[in-house]
Design a protein that fits this description.
This protein is mainly alpha-helical. The protein has 3 helices and no strands. 36% of the residues lie in helices and 0% in strands. The structure holds zinc ion (ZN).
Length: 85
Amino acid sequence: MRLKIRSRKFEGRCARHKRYNPAVDGQGGIKAGCVRCNLIFEIWQASLKLNQLIRKFDPSHDDLQRPAKPKPPATDPRQMSLIPE
Ligand SMILES: [Zn+2]
């Protein structure tokens, strides 16, 4: 099964509640049932859920996984300096 998931950066904020942050304020932080804030909350929740599902299915697709560390040099320069030239 192949599914194309649009990997896009979402930047949205409510014009009336510019400081609303779903990760910090949660659903309880939405003022007077604001539709825009609710949408931001839902998008945030859906993105978390989607990431969780993808990780659960295949951990190697973890987008938080850092690239492999560069290999250390084969010889330690400090050891090299001990060898008389
Ligand atoms: Zn709002």
